[in-house]
Structure formats: structure tokens, C-alpha cells
Write a structure and sequence with these properties.
It contains 7 helices and 10 strands. By secondary structure, the protein is α/β, with parallel strands linked by helices.
Amino acid sequence: MENAIVEYKNVDISRAERIVLKDVSFKLRKGEFCYLVGRVGSGKSSLLKTIYADVMPAGGEKAEVLGYDILHIKRSQIPFLRRKTGIVFQDFQLLQDRAVKSNLRFVLQATGWKNKSEIDDRIDEVLTEVGMQNKSYKMPHELSGGEQQRVVIARALLNKPALILADEPTGNLDPQTGYHIVQLLHKLASQGHSIVMATHNLSLVEDFPARLLRCEDKHLICCE
């Protein structure tokens, strides 16, 4: 597979000294959308967390993400990996004490942006990309669940990531809203972002077909 931005070969993943996935091998190429499915507790979230170095693999032959060797990554390198990786959480994790624009400004400033006009321009760009350009002044509690998730996707896009990891992004949304969120993620993949979306909602997989990775019996099964 050409242009692989994620490549795992025979990687073991453990939590609390218990192996949750073993001999994980897969590749993800630029601009590819991939579903990660499996039962609750099957290892989906653990796998995603190794990709952005929140959980370190227990061992393996190769675990490379965006040019970083996850098996031997230095702590000082992890923030740079995460700047290239957008993360979309199920429970939003927006700062509740500030408006949408301030939430996004906080992330940019924390990742080294200093020029105010460049910060404002980038915030406007990502909010427009997710259809939230008129909601920048709103507080998170004033937004619907779908609107909050769009803001979370905008936040993930701020540093122009090559890779977006979405962990059950529709889990707290009604079916119609979830449909629109997955539609948006597929649109982003068509624009060149590589996306891995963990989900247990197989109807979304049927509505928006893409490559499937399945966590089952402590193994990752690649369904092309």
C-alpha cells in the first residue's frame, strides 16, 4: 500500500497488564476512511489511543504513525505527533466556561500559534468547513449535541492534521444527527484527511461504505 501514514506490524496492546489486542497488523493510506468496529471492550479505544501515543504498545515489530516510531517515541515528541493528529471524542470535551471561538483559540495558542489575525482566520476557516460559522459566539451548553460535535471536529481540524481519529463520534447523538456527522467525516476524507472512526453503529457503515477493521477475540481483522 503506497503512502501509508499509519503502519502496524504484529503489535500487542495491553491495558492494566492485560493483553486486549495481539499481533495487530494494518496500514492506513493518505485520504482513506476506515471504520473500526467491535463489541464494547474489544480494544477499539485502546488501539486508537496507541496511534496518538496516549497508550504505549506492549511490543511489536513496527508501529509507525506519520513518521513517528510509536514503539520508541520520546515523551518530548508526543506533542508534535498530536499536532498532526485530530481527535474527535464521543463526549465532546469542550471547555464549558467559554464560547466556541474561545475554545478553538485556546487550542491554537496551546499549540504555538501567536498571531491574533492568523488565529482568527483559522478559526473562521474550520467553523465554515463544518457549517458552524454563525455559532462562534455560542457557549457549549447553548448548542445541540450535533452542533457540539461539529465544533469538536472543527477543533480537530485546527492544525491541518493528516490524520483524524474519531472515537464513537455519534455515540451520544440521535440517528439523523449521527448520519450528518459521518457524512461530514467522509467529506473530509475526500479532501485528503485520513480518518479512522470507531463505531458500534453498523447501519452507518452500510449507509457510508468504507474499509472495515474489526476487533474480535483479541485480534484485529482487516475486511477489505
